[in-house]
C-alpha cells in the first residue's frame, strides 16, 4: 500500500510542478551506491547528467546570503576596487613578481636545471596579496614562508596552492603567442596591461585554459532561500544546489570538440579580437556570487604568462612524460606536477640593459 501511494503521488505531480531528476536512494545510505566511480566528482556528475538529463539554468561562496554577508562582501569588493584593473599600483606589484619569476627561470637555465614552477607561482601570487595587504613580500627560500606552507600543508593540498592556472596547455601554442608578443610588444620593453587589446591570441589562450581546465570544476554549494525553479523543475527552499562548471565548459552543444585545446574558439572570425562565444563560459562564476578576485586573477595571468613567454621558450625535459589535464580534485582542481626547461629567447639571454 505504501509503495502504491508513493507511485500515485508521483503520477499526480507529473502533471504539476516537477522535481529535478534524482539518483536512486536507499534508507540510511541514500544515493552512495550510485556515486561509486573511478572518476572525480565533476566528471561523474557530467556522466550522470547524460543518463538522467540536464536541469537547464544558471545560478551563482560559502556563507548564507544575508545582510551581514552583503556588508562583508561590500567591504572586500570596495578594497579590491581600490586596485582595480588598469591600476598602475597593482600592475607595478604584479610586474615585480613577474620579473622575479623570470630571474628564477634565468638561474635555472644557466645551471641547466629543470624547474617546477608550482612553488614559484605560489610565492608570486602570495606576494601580490601580501604587498597589497601588508606592503611586504617573501623572498625565495624565506624560512617563514616555507614554515607557513608546511604548517598549512593539509589546507594547501585541499585548496590547491598551485591553482592559479595550469600553464602547460599554453606551451602547446607558445610559438604563436611569442610571434604575437614580438610583433605587438617587441623586444625593447616588457608587456603591460595596456597591451591586452593588441594580444588577442594570448587572451584567447588564457580563456581556453580556463575553459578546458576550470580552476573550480564544481562551484561552491548554494542553498535555495525560497521555493524557486530551474528550467522546468521546482527547487524547494533549503535545497542545496551545486553548479557543475566542468559540464558547462565541456557541453558538446555549446563547444565543438570540447576536449580539444583550441584557443581559436575565443577569437573572432578574422582573429583580431578575443571574444566569449558562449554563455556557458563562467570560469569565475557569475552574478552576486562571482569570484571577488576575478579582475586580479586575470591581471596576474596575463602579466605572468606574457613576461615568461616573451623571455623564454619552455619545454618538458627529455624522457619526462607530458602532464595530463585531469588534475587532482579538491576544492579546486590541482594541476599535475611537472618540470620545465627554460631556454632564453634571442635578445633575452641577459636582463641587463633591459627596461623591464
From TrEMBL:
Single Gene Ontology BP annotation: hormone biosynthetic process
Alphabetical keyword list: Heme, Iron, Lyase, Metal-binding, Monooxygenase, Oxidoreductase
The protein's superkingdom reads: Eukaryota
Tell me the GO molecular function terms. Answer: heme binding; iron ion binding; lyase activity; steroid 17-alpha-monooxygenase activity
User: Where would one find the signal peptide in this protein?
Assistant: none
What family does this belong to?
A: Belongs to the cytochrome P450 family.
The name this protein goes by in its record: Steroid 17-alpha-hydroxylase/17,20 lyase
State the species of origin.
Liparis tanakae (Tanaka's snailfish)
